[in-house]
Amino acid sequence: MGKVKQGAVCSVEGCEEKAVRSFATDKAREALQPTGASLKDERARRTYLCQKHYKLFKKQTKKDKKVEKWRYGV
Ligand SMILES: [Zn+2]
Q1: Which of 2, 12, 43, 71 is most buried (CB neighbours < 10 A)?
Q2: How would you class 4 by CB atoms within 10 Å of its CB: exposed for 0-12, middle for 13-18, buried for 19 or more?
Q3: Domain for residue 73, yes or no?
Q4: Distances from the Cα of 26 to the Cαs of 6, 33, 43, in angstroms?
Q5: Does residue 16 sit within a domain?
Q6: Concatenated DSSP letters of 4-72
Q7: Structural domain boundaries enclosing 6
Q8: CB count, 10 Å around CB of 53?
Q9: From the CA of 11, how far away is ligand 1's center (Å)?
Q10: Is the Cα dihedral 22, 27, 29, 32 positive or negative?
Q11: CA 69–ligand 1 middle distance (angstroms)
């Protein structure tokens, strides 16, 4: 899970950082939407996140108690 091949770049619009994790696009989009971040390609199967956006993603998913059990990135 979540492994990113070398050279992958963050999928957030306007971000060119090196990706550290990958997620299903739906999950990433849902979590990042409230932060104002949009994705370069919402139809991609996988979304790649850099360190910064990964932290943001984690913060957003933590806020929602309902998703606590859900193992993102699987
Ligand atoms: Zn990024």
Answers
A1: 12
A2: middle
A3: no
A4: 23, 10, 9
A5: yes
A6: --TT-B--BTT--PBEEEEEEHHHHHHHHGGGT--BS-TT-SEEEEEHHHHHHHHHHHHH-GGGSS--T
A7: 1-63
A8: 25
A9: 7
A10: negative
A11: 25
Q: Which residue has the higher pLDDT, 22 or 73?
A: 22
69/45 Cα distance (integer angstroms): 22
In this prediction the pTM is 0.77
Q: Is pLDDT larger for residue 45 or for residue 4?
A: 45
Distance 68 CA to ligand 1 centre (A): 23
CA 53 / ligand 1 centre spacing (Å): 5
**10 CA → ligand 1 middle, Å:** 5
Going by their DSSP bridges, the two strands 46-50 and 19-24 should be labelled as antiparallel
pLDDT band at 4 (very low <50, low <70, confident <90, very high): confident
